[in-house]
Design a protein that fits this description.
Layout lengths: L12 E6 L14 H12 L1 H7 L3 E11 L7 E12 L4 E11 L6 E12 L24
Antiparallel strand pairs: 1-3, 2-5, 3-4, 4-5
Length: 142
């Protein structure tokens, strides 16, 4: 049985590229999986955000398969496609592939199916509009 990662699927839309920097490397000299997952979420949100026209939030990881970990100096390319959409959710397939800088041969390192929902537009910290017109004591101001 061949366990080598398959070649990246170029039928998916290019949504994001990045390169791990020295500051991203953990104390063990490896790129933490958390960095890769954070980049996966960032790339996965691109198409659902376009679908909804709003910021989105990851609500479910239907599947994820890590074939390899990106290395320092690799160009990490994320490609995606919408699999299913509705008014309230969007499911997206995301694939990450790496290539050493200056080399054209990509190797698939990650594949995932992610579900996103629109994020409330007023989710950023700020004044709570529900308390407008109410004094600190709880009395109505008029």
């Amino acid at each position: 049985m061949n366990t080598a990662p398959s070649a990246p699927d170029h039928s998916l839309k290019l949504v994001f590229q990045t390169m791990p920097q020295t500051v991203n490397i953990g104390p063990d000299g490896l790129l933490p999986l958390g960095w890769t997952l954070a980049m996966l979420d960032r790339a996965g949100a691109v198409l659902p955000r376009g679908h909804f026209g709003l910021p989105v939030q990851l609500v479910h990881m239907a599947s994820i398969r890590v074939h390899a970990r990106p290395q320092l100096g690799d160009l990490v390319t994320f490609r995606a496609r919408l699999l299913d959409t509705s008014r309230h959710t969007a499911q997206v397939e995301v694939q990450a592939a790496t290539a050493p800088l200056g080399h054209g041969a990509y190797e698939k390192v990650l594949h995932a199916i992610l579900d996103y929902e629109p994020h409330p537009t007023n989710a950023l910290p700020g004044p709570d509009t529900r308390t407008r017109g109410v004094k600190q004591t709880g009395e109505r101001t008029g």
